Amino acid sequence: MTERLGPPLGAPLFDRLALIGVGLIGSSIARAARRKNLARVIAIADAAAEARERAVALTLGDEVVADPAEAAAGADLVILCVPVGADAAVARRIAPKLKAGAIVSDVGSVKGAVIAAVGPHLPKGVDLVPAHPVAGTEQSGPDAGFATLFVNRWCILTPTEGVDPAAVAKVRAFWEALGSNVEVMNAAHHDLVLAITSHVPHLIAYNIVGTAADLEDSTRSEVIKFSAGGFRDFTRIAASDPTMWRDVFLNNKGAVLEALGRFSEDLTALQRMIRRGDGDGLHALFTRTRAIRRGIVELGQETAAPDFGRRKGEDDNGNA
Amino acid sequence: MTERLGPPLGAPLFDRLALIGVGLIGSSIARAARRKNLARVIAIADAAAEARERAVALTLGDEVVADPAEAAAGADLVILCVPVGADAAVARRIAPKLKAGAIVSDVGSVKGAVIAAVGPHLPKGVDLVPAHPVAGTEQSGPDAGFATLFVNRWCILTPTEGVDPAAVAKVRAFWEALGSNVEVMNAAHHDLVLAITSHVPHLIAYNIVGTAADLEDSTRSEVIKFSAGGFRDFTRIAASDPTMWRDVFLNNKGAVLEALGRFSEDLTALQRMIRRGDGDGLHALFTRTRAIRRGIVELGQETAAPDFGRRKGEDDNGNA
């Protein structure tokens, strides 16, 4: 591997890009990589016939196959875009076909478990550069993807020690070309931070929507009817892909349970404030939380429009 | 009070409308009532000089005063648009100035406590018709309002027994003219349902954002940075008005603690599934919750666009 940091002008960054799995993330990468001319050949593998059919219909890749090994054969960059629980099996399958100097990456929301699952299967001369694009929607499947999904979103790389810096640089260049801001950190730290910013929020959303789903029919239909009071916000992330999220929780157990412990302690304190009628305590907390959103909007990670801009175009704020 | 259900053609529904408080909701009512010609005179009272200045600058009303009694004097409909905890004091203040046949209403998110706080102060011949428009944004103040806030949203009326049906009909007609769908139920039932659809979701959001706010500086800045993973959704409702929400929790204590109890039980069960690695249980729950969102979208209470349509116009979904 040479030291050059970028491709020659005009040539794609990679000759052959293999995407294993063509759901929301895989199909978004395919669209964006094509638009940005990041690979001469895009090879897609998906185990589901329906996903392959859609990938062909949407012309997401140059090759669309069922067998991940076939897509990965001879690829310069292989990105695993499957639920984290499937990574080990895919790695075992593709390993014999990987060419020397190939880079294997992924898009999983947990990183420690991915390194443990994938790393041992890879042959010498192949570098693992795990990646987590912090981007997505509640929808899934090839049709849900779009080329700008990663624009102005963070992509976190968690290479282990000893990985070729040139491989890390190439993966960084790839994600930057997709519009992302790239950050490098170690996998354990990633898993702790994301437990708080992503995994526990999903868990809480799944839980509150689950509580509602378990209500008797008449009450449940009222909850759906009057959901604009706040509940409907939670249903968005609780509509996320069940398999992907099952695998996240099973593979980041320690950090999730730790973050959940903090959440529960704080909730108990909040519950006590309500029971005791501690208005000052409630007001102080609700004022502090307001500031956090301002920080997110200022960093460009959220729209400043009220209500997520849901009603954009319907009315001009400020006009009677 | 006569039996006619609507105003004569062309005449406003009310002669004098008084809005006590001109925050997000009060100012939205003012804008919508003006646009729909629902009152000949709109009188606004707000204790805050800054809010009054903005109300004047935005020409939200015909009269803008500090004293609620002055605005309410001679009004046909008085709507309390202040935090629930301020209702009793306002009611006591305006009571001597209310004319016979006047209707007093409100917009509070709890109803039992409002009836208890306001009802005893009202003179004979004045009807109380409590209302809760299930609509809002995370923003507050006169500038945050907009005329279409209530369009296609529910407004729940909770009149007590013995209230003049004609008064209820007039308040219903008012909200329907603002574009809302109106439902009538008893206050206790309202407070239970809204505890689940609105109060506990807000509490949970405040709590998780509060947990993040309490992290050490370096971790907190990472949580903000990587918030697109799910956390930022919660920050929206945790940016809601602190005084309004303090009052909601203090005034719907019983139902909130009951709903929170269910939530916590379910969360404990979910936590156990993760600890034990029960992938099937997690997958089954995550599949059930997906259906709830479909129901909300089908009822027209939520956008079908992915990610709340946050990135509307940025890219066409489905186009590579």
Summarize the structure.
The structure is a homodimer of 320-residue chains. In chain A, helix 1 links the parallel strand 1 (14-20) and strand 2 (39-45).
Description:
The structure is a homodimer of 320-residue chains. With 320 residues, chain A is of the alpha/beta class. The first copy, chain A, has 2 domains: 14-185, Rossmann fold (3-Layer(aba) Sandwich), CATH 3.40.50; 190-306, 6-phosphogluconate dehydrogenase C-terminal like domain (6-phosphogluconate dehydrogenase C-terminal fold, Orthogonal Bundle). Chain A is 47% helix and 12% strand. Chain A is built from 12 helices and 9 strands. Chain A has helices at residues 24-35, 49-57, 68-72, 87-94, 112-118, 165-177, 187-213, 217-225, 231-237, 242-251, 253-276, 279-298, and strands spanning 14-20, 39-45, 63-65, 77-80, 103-106, 127-128, 131-133, 154-157, 181-184. Chain A has a 6-stranded parallel beta sheet. In chain A, α1 links the parallel β1 and β2 (39-45). In chain A, α7 (187-213) packs across α9. The radius of gyration of chain A is 22 Å and the shape is globular. Mean pLDDT of chain A is 92; it is low at 1-6 and 313-320. Chains A and B meet through α1, α7, α8, α9 and α10 of A and α1, α7, α8, α9 and α10 of B.
Q: Any idea what the shape of chain A is?
A: globular
* Level-2 CATH architecture of the largest domain in chain A: 3-Layer(aba) Sandwich
Quaternary structure of the protein: homodimer
Largest interface: A-B, 123 and 122 residues
* Low-pLDDT stretches of chain A: 1-6, 313-320
Could you tell me the mean pLDDT of chain A? 92
Strand residues, percent of chain A: 5-15%
- CATH topology of the largest domain in chain A, by name, is Rossmann fold
Question: In which order are the strands of the major sheet of chain A placed?
Answer: 3-2-1-4-5-6
Order of H and E elements of chain A: EHEHEHEHEHEEEHEHHHHHH
| N-C termini distance of chain A | 64 Å
The number of helical runs of chain A is 12
In CATH terms, the superfamily of the largest domain in chain A is NAD(P)-binding Rossmann-like Domain
Radius of gyration of chain A: 22 Å
Determine the structural class of chain A based on helices, strands and strand pairing.
Answer: alpha/beta
Number of domains of chain A: 2
Count all strands of chain A and give the number: 9
CATH class term of the largest domain in chain A:
Alpha Beta
- Into which percent range does the helicity of residues of chain A fall? 40-55%
The main pleated sheet of chain A reads as: 6 strands, parallel
